[in-house]
Amino acid sequence: MALERSELADNALQCLHDEGYDAPYNTQSLNHQTMVFVQGRDAESLDGKWNFCVDLLDTGLRQKWFSMLPQAAEDRLEPYDYDPYLGEQVTIPSNWQMLKEKWYFFEGSAWYTRPLAVDKVSADERKFLRIGAAQYDCKVFLNGAFLGNHYGGSTPFFVELTDKLQEGENWLMLCVNNTRTTDRVPMRNTDWFNYGGVYREVALYTTPKTILRDLFVALVPDSAYNKISIEAQVDGPAVGDVSISIPDLGIQASITPDAEGLAKIIIDASPELWSPENPRLYDITATVGDDQVTDRVGFRQIEQTGADLFLNGKPLFLRGISVHEDDAETGKVTSEADIRRRFSHARELNCNFLRLAHYPHHELASQIADEMGFLLWEEIPVYWAIDFENPATLRDAENQLIELIKRDRNRASVVIWSVGNENPDSDPRLNFMRSLVETAKQFDPTRLTSAACLINHAKNKIEDRLSDYIDVIGINEYYGWYEENFEDLIEIGLNSSPEKPVVISETGADADISATGPKKGLFSEAYQTHVYERQIETLRTLDYVKGISPWILYDFRVERRQNVFQQGTNKKGLIAGDKQTKKEAFHKLAAFYASKRHEIEAD
Ligand code: GCB
Predict the structure, then answer these.
(1) Whose CA is nearest to atom 2 of ligand 1?
(2) Engineering a disulfide at 393: which of 172, 211, 387, 577 sits with its beta carbon 3.0 to 4.6 angstroms away?
(3) What does the pLDDT read at residue 416?
(4) Which domain holds residue 125?
């Protein structure tokens, strides 16, 4: 049979020698600028079955699998290495590691394909695809065309599909790559598992032509608690004023957008203030033309003065716990039930605070924290030895930070943006982190900034040049575990007199409580309890310590840890990986926090 070769077939041969195949798609064009405010919007879920194929050698990008059209196998005239319309399926959201043993250590590209039926394309509508999170690099294709690329494994991103969808059947394809590299954020070395895939919800939004792209509502942070600031970004042909309504405050306002579509107003109001004790939320509706969004917002002020923290003018001590987004069965895929269980364990610990380490967690976490009354530290994965001299790495980190802030800045629970964790000191690191702090302040002047900073071990003193730029000094210290001499912690306590509040953002010890775990010494439950007792005793004497978030609530998966008691799990949890079995140290910390709470209430 004589075949007439298509462009695709010619390319299949040429691409064997092309190592620049990724360049046209590495645009990072889906970023904070393409985000859309989604609270209160109806969505069509695109979760469920998608065709799936792992692609170790990036053959799909080289051969342009995305440009193949659906065809019956017997009608295809050229050989092909994958047919996106046939074969294996997986469910989104998921991490491929959790689906098949042979994918457990797979790092590379994987393809997801699904049909998208459109009844009618209307000239009055816009369509936006939202991907809740895809680890790490995601390239989006529709009906054979490349639509954009997103970097960053834990923040949502949007692709506008208006004018791109056709009536009837459409095909959506995602190429998701989780390769660890030195220039990504995080880089290739982390103490958590490198899951891959589309592991949060995917949804399609239909809107009018003119939309509210963004809405930022906050109490003006001037300690008077009687002004609310509202900023709405309108996008699309002018359709008049933005109207805002907060019925429980009797607010009904109309704002005229400026030439760029930005509508801003400061309104006099005296809301009941949000706090962990009284997590009061107000319904707010914003409307422009035919577009409407709603949100539930708490009003409160977080403040740092000298070495003190204040919430609504009252001194604050953060009784916290650190958490990863990790599950023995589902990996990074979480659910409302999983998040609620986490908060109810935090409540049993008498916490008022959680550190969501080391990357943006699912957006439901801050929504539930708002409702239940927990304070949150949210973080981007600027972790360990980031490529601080690389401007592209900074751009990526900055974008992840802005995406997180835009996603969560209406959440009263979030009080701290953390820009990094345990990064080695250098001038490039300082410049990089300083720039992130400035970005955080620019996009949200109402919250505090922090990072897990450094201790000067030669002087036994809390000392980090970054502390000049952040509001809260986070310190990870493992005296009794990695740092052998516990007396040094006492000395650091005496040597340091930081001018800003210190939060012990990590401390802890591993404990294997399985039947084969040790009964004494390192990795035993008894030793973990001992470390907690000594930490609590020492830290409670340091008056500049304004909060603690020990490491960590649950044991979590990580392949760096392979000793006989770890076997791929970091066992510093106060609760085992089953998310049920409490270790003895859980009760020690709960008792300490109960006494701290009583001290504060008695003041
Ligand atoms: C740290 C890291 C955290 C690790 C932890 C540990 O300092 O910030 O990501 O998991 O220590 O267990 O060693």
Answers:
(1) 191
(2) 387
(3) 98
(4) 12-208
pLDDT digits 0-9 by tens, 420-475: 999 988 999 999 999 999 999 999 999 999 999 989 989 999 999 999 999 999 99
Q: Which atom of ligand 1 is nearest to the CA of 572?
A: 12
Coil vs helix vs strand at 305: strand
C-beta of residue 90 within 8 angstroms of C-beta of residue 50: yes
Pocket lining: 379 vs ligand 1, CB cutoff 6 Å? no
Q: Decide if 381 is inside a domain.
A: yes
- The domain spanning residue 270 has which CATH number? 2.60.40.10
Residue 519 has pLDDT above 60, yes or no: yes
Please answer whether residues 116 and 173 qualify as being in contact, where contact means their C-beta atoms are separated by less than 8 angstroms: no
Ligand 1 atom at shortest distance from the alpha carbon of 358: 9
Cis status of the peptide bond prior to 339, with omega within 30 of 0: no
Strand segments (E) across 502-584: 502-506, 545-548, 556-557, 569-570
Task: Give the residue, out of 193, 423, 506, with the most ligand 1 atoms within 8 A of its beta carbon, to mutate for a pocket test.
Answer: 506
In short, whether 324's Cβ falls inside 6 Å of ligand 1 is: no
Residue 1 has pLDDT above 60, yes or no: no
The predicted-structure confidence for 62-89, as pLDDT tens digits, reads as follows 999 999 999 999 999 989 999 999 999 9
CB of residue 410 inside a 6 A radius of ligand 1? no
Q: Which two tokens stand for residue 329?
A: 């069965």
Asked if residue 143 has pLDDT above 60, the reply is: yes
Shared domain check, 593 and 485: yes
Q: Which of 184, 208, 232 is the last residue of a domain?
A: 208
- Say how many C-beta atoms besides its own lie within 10 A of residue 84's C-beta: 23
Contact 211, 236 (CB under 8 A): yes
Which tens digits make up the pLDDT trace of 268-299? 999 999 999 999 999 999 999 999 999 999 99
Q: How far apart are CA 535 and CA 478, in angstroms?
A: 9
What is the CA(523)–ligand 1 centre distance, in A?
A: 15
Judge whether residue 230 has pLDDT over 80: yes
Question: 340 pLDDT exceeds 70?
Answer: yes
Find the 31 Cα to ligand 1 centroid distance in Å.
29
- Taking CA atoms only, the protein residue closest to ligand 1 atom 6 is 191
Nearest CA to ligand 1 atom 3: 191
Residues 328 and 405 in one domain: yes
pLDDT band of residue 401 (cuts 50, 70, 90) is very high
Q: Which residue of 450, 559, 570, 571 sits with most ligand 1 atoms within 8 Å of its CB, as the best mutation to test the pocket?
A: 570
Name which residue sits closest to atom 4 of ligand 1, judged by CA.
191
Q: Is 572 in the pocket of ligand 1 (CB under 6 A)?
A: yes
Q: Among the three residues 275, 300, 325, which one is the final residue of a domain in this structure? A: 300
Residue to mutate, 322, 477, 551, 559, ligand 1, most ligand atoms under 8 Å from C-beta:
551
- Cα separation, 138 vs 184, whole angstroms: 13
Tell whether 189 and 338 lie within a shared domain.
no
Atom nearest to 422 CA in ligand 1: 8
- Higher pLDDT: 413 or 2? It is 413
